[in-house]
Design goal:
Layout (H helix, E strand, L loop, with lengths): L1 H30 L1 E2 L5 H4 L2 E2 L11 E16 L4 E13 L10 E4 L12 E4 L1 E6 L7 E6 L3 E13 L11 E10 L7 E5 L6 E2 L9 E15 L2 E14 L2 H18 L10 H24 L10 H50 L2 H17 L19 H20 L5 H28 L1
Parallel strand pairs: 3-11, 3-12
Antiparallel strand pairs: 1-2, 3-4, 4-9, 5-8, 6-10, 7-9, 8-9, 10-14, 13-14
Helix pairs in contact: 3-4, 3-5, 4-5, 5-8
Length: 444
């Protein structure tokens, strides 16, 4: 019984002491002067609001990155979302202690230390992970070196050029910069150059693959001063196989389907018209579907739009070719009908001719020959200029002759040749256009 009372009395003596020590810590924290638990002899009088080497040389911050994932790359919003682990390392002479060990502290103790004011340039949205606790790491080394790491998911702007979509290569950046400390107070460096970035070569993206990446050290000139900046620049090349199967191959097959009409006779109007109209409607649907996925980027004239326009033009040309061939065939058929009618009339007149008419015609022709013996007119030498006519009649005669020559030049004598030449010219010209298309968008 006596021992129980003694323990209770000791507990009452201990609690006020603990309250006073917590109150003392909070007051020190309010003034910015703190001490880390277990490192009171080192950090006594430590002011977290003053950078290391305050008033002297700038603090050198060495950084490294681990790219955990790039979850999405949006062409319409022109940004990408990445989850990264950012490690920052610097030396604070106020935290030097004896020995050659390093200590990992609780992440909540970062509030007691000075840390750089690094931010992500062009970040739209960012958050730090807090499951199950805040994903931060603080490690102290005996020479005063501090390693501070944290895990962030950020959405960063990336200006994309979609003029060669889907055969495009996009260059994106991740830029780290000091917000308040200029280059007189702080300097940024990569810990090991290009080797400071890890994980990016192992990324597996849905539409892209990482071609190359490199690190840069730069400065940002603002009105308030010159601020240090680190840049990670990486190139992403789009995987074009999906678009070949989804868009390029169907559009090419539709163009080839429109050529089937060249092997159908001109008399089969429903069959040829049905093929032409069906392929045009299918091509229109394919064009609308390809643009719906990038509805917010319709201002760009993309490579896929150019190819779909080429295919649509060839399909429309095949339909126009049948219209021209059919019109020429109908014109030729209508011209044959009057010739056959005039031939029938001549045969009927020949049947009615008798011997009396033949004698009368021969006598009249003999009299005309006698009366014009002194005049010789040949059809070869006769032209509009030799005849006695007015000047405007001469002009009409010349223009009429030229118009007949022009019309006869463009008149298709054999409509069947239109399909014959189209069977060769359409595929050949389509292949040439495809070669120029691929050469331009892949190598220029």
């Amino acid at each position: 019984m006596f021992g129980r009372y003694f323990s209770i009395f000791g507990l009452y003596l201990f609690l006020p002491t603990q309250r006073n020590s917590l109150g003392h810590g909070s007051s020190l924290h309010g003034r910015g002067t703190t001490s880390l638990p277990g490192f009171e002899n080192i950090t006594t009088g430590y002011n977290k609001y003053l950078r290391p080497y305050f008033g002297g040389e700038p603090v050198q911050i060495a950084m490294s990155l681990h790219i955990a994932s790039i979850s999405s790359i949006s062409e319409s919003d022109m940004d990408y979302t990445a989850t990264i682990s950012l490690q920052q390392c610097w030396t604070d002479p106020r935290l030097v202690f004896h020995g050659n060990k390093s200590f990992t502290l609780d992440a909540r103790l970062v509030e007691l230390l000075w840390v750089p004011d690094t931010y992500i340039v062009e970040s739209k949205r960012s958050f730090q992970h807090h499951v199950t606790v805040g994903n931060r790491l603080v490690r102290l080394f005996s020479n005063g070196t501090v390693l501070y790491a944290l895990r962030i998911t950020t959405t960063v702007a990336c200006n994309t050029d979609l003029s060669k979509y889907p055969m495009d290569t996009q260059t994106c950046q991740l830029q780290l910069e000091s917000w308040g400390y200029d280059e007189n107070d702080i300097t940024f460096t990569w810990l090991r150059g290009n080797d400071s970035v890890h994980g990016i070569e192992k990324l597996r993206l849905s539409q892209y693959r990482v071609e190359r990446y490199h690190t840069l050290v730069s400065k940002s000139q603002q009105e308030t001063g010159s601020y240090p900046r680190l840049i990670l620049q990486f190139e992403l090349r789009r995987n074009v196989l999906y678009f070949i199967l989804e868009t390029y191959m169907p559009s090419t097959l539709l163009v080839m389907l429109s050529w089937v009409s060249f092997w159908i006779t001109l008399d089969s109007m429903p069959a040829r018209t049905c093929i032409g109209v069906t392929t045009m409607l299918s091509m229109t649907t394919l064009m609308i579907g390809s643009r719906s996925s990038l509805s917010k980027t319709n201002c760009f004239i993309k490579a896929i739009d150019v190819y779909l326009g080429i295919c649509f033009s060839f399909i429309f040309g095949a339909l126009v070719e049948y219209a021209v061939a059919h019109y020429s065939s109908s014109q030729k058929c209508s011209a044959k009908v009057p010739e056959e009618g005039s031939a029938n009339e001549l045969t009927e007149e020949k049947e009615e001719v008798n011997i009396t008419n033949i004698l009368n015609n021969s006598i009249s022709s003999y009299k005309q020959k006698i009366s014009f013996t002194s005049i010789e007119i040949s059809s070869d030498n006769a032209n509009c200029s030799d005849l006695t006519m007015k000047s405007h009649e001469k002009i009409k005669c010349v223009l009429r002759n030229k118009m007949h020559r022009i019309i006869s030049y463009f008149t298709i004598q054999n409509p069947g040749n239109v399909d014959h030449y189209s069977k060769l010219l359409f595929p050949l010209f389509f292949m040439v256009v495809n070669v120029f298309y691929l050469a331009y968008y892949l190598y220029f």
